[in-house]
Specification:
By secondary structure, the chain is mainly α. The protein is 62% helix and 0% strand. It has 2 domains: 12-56, Arc Repressor Mutant, subunit A; 69-196. It has helices at 12-32, 38-45, 49-55, 59-74, 76-84, 88-105, 107-111, 119-123, 125-141, 150-162, 175-185. The longest helix has 21 residues, at 12-32.
Amino acid sequence: MNRVADRRPLRADAARNVDKIITAARQCFREHGPEVPLQTIAVTAGVGPATLFRNFADKEELVLAALHRQLGLLVDPVIEEALAGPDAADGLFRVIDALMGVASEEANLLGAVAGRRGLLTGITGDLIESVAVLLGRGQGQGTLRSDISMTDMIRLLAMLIGVVDTMEAGSDAWRRPVALVEDAIRTERPTRPLPPQAPLPGTAFDSYLG
């Protein structure tokens, strides 16, 4: 069971505490990185450790809740517009852009998730369902390759989210990999140039990179 998705409605005071904890978690991960102790998050939120653990069993559950909230705020409205729009392929890539924007801004949150395997299914069930709808529509409209499956799409999304490990938090370096994926799955290759290349931070590969 996914406690993030299946969380029951809370009393007003409990809901305020959860909101304070999630807000503090985003701040602490941004300022201190993925290894920040939960005690620090509790202090920043102005709640006791017991309150934090009553709502979140461990750091990963807190991280997933924070990501779930950001997706709801920043990605869900884009999904609604994409599903209502006439061009499914364009809508699909607007959704992917919104998802990658959250992944970039919340890179330190992503870094605190011990395993990425359950990340997509843990926090983005509605997103995956919407991607499936847009993929099917795009294939029906002839704008997306007919041989692309949802298994392919889930792996592509996981791969793109992994790009945040190779860039500075908050960077838009993800735009180039997304454009490459778009080139690969559209039936007609876009005519616009690729977005600019961004350097890999903190690597010893500079002499090999172009």
